[in-house]
Structures are given as structure tokens and as C-alpha cells.
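3.2 Worked example (two chains)
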Amino acid sequence: MVSQVSFTLAPRQRGYHVITREVLSQLPELPAVGLLHLFIQHTSAAITINEAADPDVLTDFESVFNHLVPENMPFLVHTLEGPDDMPAHIKAAMIGHSITVPITGGQLNLGTWQGIYLCEFRNRASGRRLIATIYA
């Protein structure tokens, strides 16, 4: 059996945000065993799984990615939507647009310290749309 829901996350400021609880609140009851596939419908934000226990990890991700892909690089051509837009596209391509999580015992089978991140790369973003597909 396959089920699918789409939902919009609350708008967030630029940065990395643990959204595991918000995602779970939008899902129907999970099967005993299966897979959750999450897809973000945007090109300037990403989702991933990483450390969710220490908030310093979120800050460090933001610092590293801003160092790797800074704003106002003089050779960028796609600049109509502001200096944060093309760097946001590059960062999103580096991290990715989807994740898959196993479901065990009716719960997401994440590791002890893991959480689902929204990686928001725009300075002024609206709520981000996700598609959740549950395979039982």
C-alpha cells in the first residue's frame, strides 16, 4: 500500500532547522514496517538527515556552506532574484531534494542523534512544500 500527503512547513529564517516533529505531525499513522520518502518542491532549499541533539551543528552547517558558496560572487549570471538566490540553488543541489527513512514499529527508524533538517538558503523564504510518500 502507498499513501501520499503534501503539506507546507511554517516559514523559517535562513539556516538549518530540525523539522522532524513538524513532519511527523503532518503524516497519517505510519505502518508497522515501510519507508517514508520526503521530497521538497523547491530549488533554493534542501532536506537532509543529520545530528539533531546539539544546536551548534546547525550553526556550523550554515557557516561552512556560506564559506563554500558565498553571496555576491562576481561571475554569477543568475542574479535577478537577489544575491542569495543562485547560491541557494547551488547549496540545494549539493545537499539534495529528498530523503528516505525506514519505518519500524510504526515509527521513523532514525538513529539516536538523527533528525530531519530543512536547509533554508534564502534570506526571505515562504513556507516550503513537501511531498511525503509512505510505502507499507
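3.2.1 Second chain
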Amino acid sequence: MRIPGQAAGVAVLDPTGWIFMFRYDNEEVGVHWAMPGGGLDIGESPLRAAVRELREETGWTDIHVDGTTLCSWEHDFTRAGVPVRQHEYIFLTRGPRRDPIGDLTESHAADKILRWRWWSPDELAGAHEPLWPPHLPELLADVRRRGAPAAPIDLGHVRTGAVGRG
């Protein structure tokens, strides 16, 4: 039985196209790189959740997320031994390349965030560890060529290659 889930994340690009990402690891999901983001609270919109998660995970309060949606996708994983099929919205915004602000040690430990970094487009295209969503290098290459999509790109259900996939 799948438990439906919803999450939202933010692709923060610097002025030259580098993207900010976190490296996650836990026993059920495995190692992967993903943008700041997380689950929606009850009654919370995807955009509001994305802004909240960005603030909680980076300390950045001055990044404006206007609602431009890069993509949505579904993926499977397990949480506390329970299979989850999660629908995730990825918003797109720009910001300066900088470090997270404040002491986020406890928050990152609770979320199984091991570290963070800015990725150049070439580094992202040649990543050796899983990216969530896996199509991220191609999506961002399209953004560099054509600008933000007029409508969100629906990637549908994507296998992540992580433990517990469906």
C-alpha cells in the first residue's frame, strides 16, 4: 500500500547558472543530491512549503520564490519502513552564490543532510551520485537555452535508483 505524499523544493541558481544542492543519506533512501525542500504541512501550498523549507534548510530569508515551477515528479521511497509515493514540485529562482546562514547543524542532522555545495552545469551533468530528480541536468540546460518553462514540466513517475523504490 502506498502512502501518498507531497513535497516541494527550490532550485536556486546563481547568476552564472550554478545550482545549490544538499547531499542526503539515510538507511532507507540512500545517498542522493537534492535541492532544499521537504514535505508539505497540512493546509500548506507547495509554494509556501518550498519557501519555508528553503528558509529552514539554508537560513536564507531574502530569496524571492515567485512561483515559477520548473517541474513536478513522482518517486518512490520508504520512510520508517513504509512505502511512500511522493509527488514533488520544484520551483525555480535565482540568488547569490553563498553559504547557508546560521547554525543549521541540528536541522541538517535531523534531515540526514551530510553536506551542501554549489554545482556548475558541467559538474551536474557529470554527477556520479544520484540526483533528485535524475533529469535535473537536462532541465537546467533547457532553462539556460530557453529560459524558465512557460508551464511546469511533468516528469511523471521516475525511478530514483534508491533503496525502497517501487
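3.3 Remarks
The first strand starts at residue 3 and ends at 13.
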